[in-house]
Sequence to fold (143 residues):
Amino acid sequence: IVVPGVAVTYLKRDLPTVTLAGTSNGAAFNVSNADIGTTAWRVVASKHFIVFGLAAGIGQDKYSTSASVQGSASGQQSAVISLSQDMTRTNMFADLSLNFPILKLVGEVGQVSGGSVATYNAFANKDANASRLYGSVGLRFAW
Fold:
């Protein structure tokens, strides 16, 4: 009743390695050995009271990608270019839940930050690796 619950999770997800090839009007483009993998861990402490519950956690996500790219056009072929990127980001979050007899309401707010990524894209006028604030709300009926 007095001590909070503590959970530790670890998750590893990898996509199958793929090779893609495309041709159009005598030009060819190949992406070979494209490989994407992620690992994530979380530590969460939570405490439930009669009507509401609180939880807070921290974790880390690691992303690893690699591929080889080659193209050809008009009889000319490029060298094979090997690309790879690794990134690690930290995730912190807090939850509040309201537990009514037939309705459960949960809200979460968190922030992910860290890592570096080389890209030409911008997202909402921020770098791809910028710190991001997020939130979510869940509703469940139970009887």
About this structure: DSSP finds no helices and eight strands in the chain. The two ends are 24 Å apart (CA to CA).
